[in-house]
Queue: 3 jobs
Job 1
Amino acid sequence: MEKLAAAFAVTLGKYVSKEVVVFIISMIPILELRGGLIVSKLLQVPITTAIPLCIIGNIIPIPFILLFIKQIFKWMKKIKLFRGLIEKLENRAMGKSDNIRKYEFWGLVLFVGIPLPGTGAWTGSLIAALLDVDFKKAIIAELLGIAIATVIMSVLSYGLLGALLA
C-alpha cells in the first residue's frame, strides 16, 4: 500500500498542495485513511493537519455508498461490460461479511477500524449496504471504526514508521 500511496502522492503532488493530496488519497478506495496518513508522513504534513484531512476524506464517500451503491450496481449490471466486475465486487465484499452479518454493529466497527488489507470504510459501507444494515447504525459504526483506524495508523505512521522514515 505504501508504494501505491506514494505513487498517487507523486502524481497528484504535481498539481495540488500536499494537504489536498492527503485529502484525496483518504477518499480513494483501498488507500483511504491508512494511505492518507502514510502519505502525510512521507510529505511531512504535521499530524495535527493530517488527521482531520484524512478523517474527513475517508468519511465523505460513506453516505453515498450506503445510500446509492445498490442502485448503481443494479444499473451497471444491466450493461454487459460491467456485469462481471460488479458481480466480482459484490462477491468479494460478501465474502468478507461474515463477522458483520453475525455481529452487525460491532462487526462493522472492527471491520472498518482494524487496518488490514481489504478492510476499511469503502468495503464496510458496501457490505453494510448489501446487508441492508440500518443507515444510522452503519454511519455510527463506521465513524467509530474510522476513529480506531486513525489511532492505529497515526501511531504506525508517525510513531513506528515515522521513526524509520526520519
Job 2
Amino acid sequence: MIRYLPSFCLFLLLTPLTAQRAVAIDPEESSVYRVKTLYEGLGGLALMLGSTAGIESLRRKPDIDDGTLRRLQETGTSRLDRWGLEQDALRRFRGEDASDRVFNASMLLPATLFVSRKFRKDFLDITVLYLEAHALSAATYAFSPLGPRFIDRYRPVVYYDELSFEDRRAGNNRNGFFSGHVSTTAVGTFFFTKVLSDYNPQWTGGQRALAFTLAAIPPAFVGVQRVRALKHFPTDSVVGLGVGAFFGIMVPHVHKVWARNHRSRLSLGGGYSNGAGGGGLTLTF
C-alpha cells in the first residue's frame, strides 16, 4: 500500500511561558492544534513501522491454486463491480503507472503548506499529525477486520483468462479489499485540505465544500486507474477513499477540538494597586 515510508524529523519543542505583566492571547499566534509532539510522534512512527511490516506480511499469502483460478472464472460479480471485469488486460500497466504518479504526488502535497509562514511556525505539529493519519490508515488496512488480513478478496486480475497463471496466482492477489493506494492518496489530499481550512477560519461554507470536493478528485482518479490496472474492483476503491478521507480529516480535527477545549479552560487575571503599586498575572488550566 505504501511504497516508501515518509521521513519525519521528530523533535521535542519546549517553549517556556513567561510573563511580567498582563498578557493577552492572540488566536492568530497560538497553534490551531494541541499536539503532544514527542509522544505522538514516536507513537505514530512506531505504528507506521508496525503497519508497514504487517502490509509486507500480507503480500506473502499462499499462492492461489489453479483449480481456484478456473472456478473463479465461472463465478459472477455484483453489478457495481462488473466494470472491473470489462477492462483491457493488456493495458493494465498504463493504469498502474498513472495511479502511482498521483499516489506519490499526494503523499508530498501537505509539504507544500510550509511555503507559507502561517504553517511553518507549526511545522512539528502538522508533521506529527500527518504521520499519525497515515499510520492509522495503514494500520486499518494491515490489521483491522476491514482489511485483507481478515478478508480474502481476489483482485480482478485473477479472473482474466487471457493472462497466464503466473500473473494470476500470486498470493498478493488475495488482497483486493480495500484499496490501499486510494486510501493513502485520500489521506494526503484530505489532510491537506483540512489543515488549509482550519488555518483559514474566514472561509465560507461554500468555499469549504468546494475545497473538500476538489480533495476527492485525486483519490477518485487513483481509484479508477487501480480498476483499469486490474488491482481492485470499484467498491474496493470507494471504501479506500472513505477510509483515507476519514483519517485525513479526523486526526487534525480531534487535535483542533483538543486545542479549543484547552484554551477555553485558560483564564487570565491581573490587578494593580495605586497605593502599594504592583501587578500580577494568574494562569489557570
Job 3
Amino acid sequence: MIASERVHRTKVALLGAAIVVLFVGQYNEELAIESVEFATLGLLAGMMILVYLTQQSGVYDFIAIKAGQFSRGDPFRLVLMMAGTVAVLAGFLDNLTTILLVVPITFLLADTLDINPMPLILIEIMAANIGGAATLIGDPPNIMIGDAANLSFNDFLVNNLPGVTVILAVVTVALYFTFRSKLEVAEENRKYVMELDAAASIRDREELKRTLPVLIGTIVAFFLHQYIHIEPATVALTGAAVGLLVTKIPVEEALEKIEWTTLFFFMGLFVMVGALEVTGAIGKVAEGITSVTQGNRNAELVGIIWTSSLVGGIVDNIPLTAAMIPVVQEIKGGSVDNAYWWALSLGACFGGNLTLISAACNVAAAGMAEKAGQPIGFWTFLKIGFPVTLATTVLATAYILLRY
C-alpha cells in the first residue's frame, strides 16, 4: 500500500497497526505500546522544534550561502562537500539528527543555486546511512551490537571506518554522475552566489543570540551523550525546552511546526514491526542462515551481511538487529572472532538505504521534503536506494572477506 502511493503512508501505517493489534492473537495493546520506540519519537520532536526556532533567525540561510560559496557553485565539489559533511556528522551525532539539521540547509542552498534539491537530499540520505556505520553511536544497530558484544567506540572506528570511507567515496562519485544533469548550475547563478553577502541573510540578530547557543550546546551534548550518560532523545527534548524558554516565538507556533504525520507514521510502523517480532517471523528468517551456511565461516559471514541488509531494509534494521544478535552469538559460539559482528553492523546499516521506510532518517527526510512541497515518492527512492544497497552490500562483503 505504501509502495502504491495511492494512500498517504501515515494512513497506511496506522491502519496496519490497528489490524495487527486487532487480529494477531498474542499481540495486545500493551505489547504494541512497548514496541513503539519513544526515544526515536522524542529525538524527532525535539529536533523539529529546535530547528524551527533557530531557522527563524536566518542562520540556515547564512550556512547555505557559505556552503555555496565554498563550493564555488561547482556541482561535483558541492556533492563531495555535502556527502562528506553528512557522513562525518552521522558518525558522531547519529544519522537521524544529522538529516534533521542538514535537510533545511539543503533546500535553501538549492534555492540559492537554482537547482533541484532532490538529488542532494537523496545523496545526503545515502551518505548518512553509510557514515552512521562507522561509529558506535552513528546508527542504532551499532549501539545494540556494541552493547551485546562489549565493543568500544574505538573498536568500531578501527574495524568499520576504513571500509565505510572507501564505500562512501565510491557511492558518492557514482551518485554524482547519476544526477549530474540535474545538478548543473548556470554561470550567472554561480556569480550570483559568490556575490551574496551571507551576513545579510541573518534576519533577527537578537533571536540568533538567544537560540544559536542552545543549538550549539545541544549538538555538543550529542557528541558527549555517551560519556555523560544522557540519551539523544533527552538531549533533543532538553534543547527544545530551553529553546522555547529563551525565544520570543510563541510556543503554540513552534509546536505546530512538529511534523505530526511523520511521528504517527513511525508509531504505526513500530507497532507493525513489533508484531513481526512477537510472532517470531523475523527470528525465523535470521535462524535460516544457520541451516543454509552449514558451518562454513565465509558462508556465514556472507549470509549475515546479506540477510541483515536485505531483510533489515524491508522490516527496519533495528528489530532485525535485535533478532540477529542471538543468532550471531550462537554461530560464534565461544570464538573471539568479531568479524561476525562487523558483518552484522555493515549489513544492517547499509540496508537502511533500501527503501524509503528502511531507516528513521529516510522517513524524516521524506517528511521534511513533503512539507516543503517536494515529496519523495516510494519508487523514486527505491530507484536509487536499491542499487546503492546492492552496491554497498557487495563492497561490504568484499571488505569483510578480504580483511577477516
